[in-house]
Amino acid sequence: MHYPDVYIGAVKPYENDRPSAIGKRQVDGILQLTALGLEGDEQAESSYHGGPDRALCHFPREHYAWLRQHFPEQEERFHPPAFGENLSTLGLTEANVFIGDIFRWGDALIQVTQPRSPCYKLNTFLHCPQMSPVLQDTGKCGWLYRVIATGSVSGDKPFELMTRNSDVSVAEAISIAFNMPFDEEQYRRLMNAAGLSASWSKTMQMRLINRKIEDFGRRLFGSAGK
Questions:
Q1: What is the pLDDT of residues 131-163, one digit of tens each?
Q2: The CATH number of the domain where 67 resides is what?
Q3: CB 26 within 8 A of CB 81
Q4: Neighbours of 151 (CB within 10 A)
Q5: How many domains is the chain partitioned into structurally?
Q6: I need a surface site. Which of 6, 21, 85, 167 has the fewest CB within 10 A?
């Protein structure tokens, strides 16, 4: 059984950056999970965060020990929910969670839709200019869910895998999208993974149309990456 720590946050202003809801706090007790996420949780930029396919963000707690080891100067920062996640668990990682997996959590059902795409706001928030590319390169990205049945949830309710719908792990999806050369066969394989988000399906389709991989610089580094 995998019991999650649960976090929510409101949009706040940040000096020298746009408002964000990356800063979250742990909540206990029963919450309502709607089609757009946990009650009380917010997203600042709806083009890139939130929405039906990105209602919840899950980041494995295991990654924090690795980060503390590799970035000792920022060690005190690497504790949940430093990455703005809604859910943190032990035992669920990109290697054993698959695109399309449906979990029961309390009264709700949630489905894995895509890996998280690390962005430059993590660099700013964690005062580590290379954080986003490090997460992308190592596959320590976490993943996102859609809510397919709303209901009451809490950290006292375990995650239970109900249905596995594809053979593409989150780790493989990260590798295909971020870390391997152009590969039409793998893009089609990822697009065929049941439950894949609309935005990731579009990205893979555009690669097939344009015959090239899009530039990651702006997402990973903001304006500096242009």
A1: 999 999 999 999 999 999 999 999 999 999 999
A2: 2.40.33.20
A3: yes
A4: 15
A5: 1
A6: 167
pLDDT band at 225 (very low <50, low <70, confident <90, very high): very low
> CA separation (Å) from 15 to 12, 46, 84, 129?
10, 20, 17, 16
Segments forming the whole domain that contains residue 65: 2-222
Beta-bridge partner residues of 20: 12
Amino acid identity for residue 23 in this structure: G
> Residue 38 carries which side chain, given as an amino acid letter?
L
**Alpha-carbon gap, residue 197 to 195, rounded angstroms:** 6
pLDDT at 226: 38
Which residue from 114, 2, 130, 101 is spatially nearest to 51, judged by alpha carbons? 114
Asked whether the beta carbons of 131 and 140 are under 8 A apart, the reply is no
Backbone angles phi, psi at 130, to 5 degrees: -105, 10
